[in-house]
Design goal:
By secondary structure, the chain is mostly helical. The chain has one domain: MFS general substrate transporter like domains (Growth Hormone, Chain: A). Helices cover about 80% and strands about 0% of the residues. Helix 4 packs antiparallel against helix 18 and helix 14 runs parallel beside helix 16.
């Protein structure tokens, strides 16, 4: 097996672990809130504390991966979030839980930007879409398996020991990554000469992140960057519901047992995993047909339209099976947008893929922050979940429109040059 394919498999397991640890708190909601005496809105703020920490540290963590390399940065990230996963099990009050979850989010923040930087160095352009799909499908499968399995673990051990056990697994993964991975294929002794040449020839943009420095002003005035951020806000607003409120929403609305709820809540996440694979496959297939712009736009637009349709479907049914089916369509669509989104960041970021993708993910996780609070507060204000799903459907439709404006052939660091500005309005292949 080519070593770059083994690398994609390693990031798949990273993504699984990331989401197992992330969704555990939703699965443990009832015993955790019971022990600490939390209301639903306080639990919503706990979920948002994670999302806020995760959002705020995306760009700095991506910059670290660009500067110091993903080998050290990813190992440090996994060790940090594993520490705060374990410390969640020691929370003694609402305030301590807020602090631990904020720091847990900050610890997880750089994982995907660092993976994007890894893919820039290790994968030819024509393989990046499917690799992103495989990578993110790990998160959905991890979350899907975690819902029933962590529910069983919490029931067997209690929620506090369960978080400590999850933290221990992360430390083992971090040590294994640091021992095996190297920042570039040229540094890894197990990469063949033929594979190194293939990767170098297909890498596409600059080989070094430092050839042309990336300034904050470049990000701020890039239309591509703002479009990437806006559409990713909508994507995360839709998906993050499954990680936060879907389990308690199904359990309370349909009065289900925890394990049964976990199985049902896992179905949309399995749909998301499939959406990532389909979206990534479509990105690479269209790219090989010779049009980079359409290879990013078509999967994303189709995905957002499906997400809109799925969320509207939840408004038409009052049956647990049909509700779960509608949400599965929505999450399948929302997750189809991930491979083109992250491939697009590598396109426009090149050697700065870490900081560019981190900036996009900052906006996306502000969407997660809003979701964590919007659902419980809208439920309290209106007595219904209808406004939340209607807002989500509208945002997905707007994101589909945004994708008609993206230009992956225009790198951010090139947008400051007069030559580029003269042709900026002309789409390219």
């Amino acid at each position: 097996m080519p070593l770059r394919h083994l690398l994609v498999a390693a990031t798949f397991t990273l993504s699984m672990l990331l989401y197992v640890d992330r969704i555990a708190i939703s699965t443990a909601k009832q015993p955790l809130t019971g022990d600490l005496g939390l209301t639903d809105t306080e639990f919503g703020w706990t979920l948002s504390a994670f999302a806020l920490g995760y959002a705020l540290f995306q760009t700095p963590a991506g910059a670290l991966a660009d500067r110091f390399g993903p080998r050290r940065v990813i190992a440090g990230i996994v060790a940090a979030w594993s520490l705060f996963t374990a410390l969640t099990g020691l929370a003694w009050s609402y305030r301590s839980l807020l602090v631990f979850r904020f720091l847990f989010g900050a610890g997880e923040a750089g994982a995907y930007p660092a993976c994007a930087r890894t893919f820039y160095s290790w994968l030819p352009v024509g393989e990046r879409g499917f690799a992103q799909g495989v990578n993110f499908s790990g998160s959905r499968l991890g979350a899907a398996f975690a819902l029933p399995l962590v529910a069983a673990l919490v029931a067997a051990l209690g929620w506090r020991p369960a978080f400590m056990a999850l933290g221990a697994v992360g430390f083992v993964w971090a040590a294994a990554w640091f021992a095996w991975f190297r920042d570039t294929p040229e540094e890894h002794p197990s990469v063949s000469v033929a594979e190194r040449q293939l990767i170098a020839a297909g890498r596409g943009a600059r080989a070094s992140a430092t050839e042309v420095p990336l300034r904050a002003a470049d990000l701020a005035r890039s239309a591509n960057m703002w479009l990437a951020m806006g559409q990713y806000f909508a994507s995360n607003f839709t998906f993050f519901f499954c990680l936060t409120w879907l389990f308690p929403h199904l359990q309370q609305t349909y009065r289900l047992e925890a394990f049964q709820t976990g199985l049902l809540a896992a179905v949309p996440l399995l749909g998301g995993a499939l959406g990532n694979w389909v979206g990534g496959w479509l990105v690479d297939r269209l790219y090989r047909q010779g049009n980079r712009q359409r290879s990013r736009q078509i999967p994303a637009i189709l995905g957002f339209l499906l997400a809109c349709f799925g969320l509207l479907g939840t408004l038409a049914f009052d049956h647990v099976g049909l509700t779960v089916a509608s949400l599965t369509i929505a999450i399948f669509g929302a997750d189809m947008t991930l491979p083109p989104s992250w491939a697009f960041c590598i396109d426009i970021g090149g050697g700065h893929a870490g900081v560019v993708s981190g900036t996009m993910n900052t906006a996306g996780n502000l969407g997660s922050f809003v979701t964590s609070l919007a659902f419980p507060y809208l439920l309290v204000l209106t007595g219904s979940s209808v406004p939340f799903f209607a807002i989500g459907a509208t945002m997905n439709l707007a994101a589909a429109v945004m994708w008609t404006r993206v230009r992956p052939e225009h790198p951010i660091v090139g947008e400051r040059s007069p030559a580029h500005r003269a042709i900026a309005g002309t789409p390219g292949r």
